[in-house]
Amino acid sequence: MNGAEGHVEELKEQLNKLSDDINNYDLEKLLNISLELDKVIYEYGREKQRHGFCG
Q1: 4 in helix, strand or coil?
Q2: DSSP 5-53
Q3: CA angle, corner 41, sides to 18 and 25, nearest 5?
Q4: For the chain, which residues make up each domain, given as ranges?
Q5: Residue 45 has what pLDDT?
C-alpha cells in the first residue's frame, strides 16, 4: 500500500473510532480528520490524473 492509501486508511480508522459513539465524539477533532481525509483523497486523485490513470 502506498503512502497516500495508507494515510487514507489511517484517517478512516480514526473517523470510525470517533464516530462509534455519536453522542460522545469530539466534533472539532472529527471535522479536522475529515478535512485532512478530503485533502489526501483530492491530492491522490490529482496525482493519478496527472500520471494518466484517471479518465
Answers
A1: helix
A2: HHHHHHHHHHHHHHHSSTTT--HHHHHHHHHHHHHHHHHHHHHHHHTT-
A3: 10
A4: 3-50
A5: 84
Per-residue cell: 13: 480508522
Cα separation, 9 vs 20, whole angstroms: 16
What spatial distance separates the first Cα and last Cα of the chain, rounded to whole Å? Answer: 22
Comparing CA positions, the residue from 9, 17, 2 lying closest to residue 36 is 9
Exposure class string for 8-38: b at 16+ Cβ within 10 A, else e: beebeebbeebeeeeeeeeeeebeebeebbe
Per run of 10 residues, the mean pLDDT along the chain (length 55 residues) is 75 75 72 84 84 64
